[in-house]
Design a protein that fits this description.
The complex is a heterodimer of chains A (109) and B (113).
Chain A: E1 4-6, E2 11-14, E3 19-25, E4 32-38, E5 45-50, E6 55-57, E7 60-65, E8 70-75, E9 84-91, E10 97-99, E11 103-108
Parallel strand pairs in A: 2-11
Antiparallel strand pairs in A: 1-3, 3-8, 4-5, 4-9, 6-7, 7-8, 9-10, 9-11
Chain B: E1 3-7, E2 10-13, E3 19-26, E4 32-38, E5 44-52, E6 55-58, E7 64-70, E8 73-78, E9 87-94, E10 103-104, E11 108-112
Parallel strand pairs in B: 2-11
Antiparallel strand pairs in B: 1-3, 3-8, 4-5, 4-9, 5-6, 7-8, 9-10, 9-11
Classes of the chains: A mainly beta (109), B mainly beta (113).
Amino acid sequence: RKEVEQDPGPFNVPEGATVAFNCTYSNSASQSFFWYRQDCRKEPKLLMSVYSSGNEDGRFTAQLNRASQYISLLIRDSKLSDSATYLCVVIGSSYKLIFGSGTRLLVRP
Amino acid sequence: SQTIHQWPATLVQPVGSPLSLECTVEGTSNPNLYWYRQAAGRGLQLLFYSVGIGQISSEVPQNLSASRPQDRQFILSSKKLLLSDSGFYLCAWSPEGGRNTIYFGEGSWLTVV
């Protein structure tokens, strides 16, 4: 089993739709969680951290479920510019970050 | 503010040739430094990380090596490239202490022919 798993997608949604991605992790001792966004042929960029109580940044909401060992990202009112690959990142008990393989989102007009 | 620079942005190298990718970070001291590789359509693979000058940890066996000659400089090298070394190489840094998010350079596209 991979340490961090994501549905590769692609998720193909119309503009204005709400879409949600899940990411599961295997190490119950994991401490920190993040979502990154990666555009085609570009470097990943931090989208948002994921806090235990859940957190929101505009149209984006991140949730953590420690009992089930997954984190989620909800995007409301999708824009064409949201099309990208979304990477889930988990930090365990070392300096190393573990990246998921990413979920690809395509927002169509 | 902190910035990270990585070069060259793209390169095409023949099999068996050497490689040197360089990365520097500005605006911070004693950062953790990382080299990742992303093959086409695949996830990020951690190659090396460093918590200080001269301290390099290797994650996977390969024909690549890394060095940290200065606090904010990280170099990825190879003496003889293989076709399988093609990919997108990303340097990244995080604040000292670990368990922090990391920030990536713009990446280097390597094609071995």
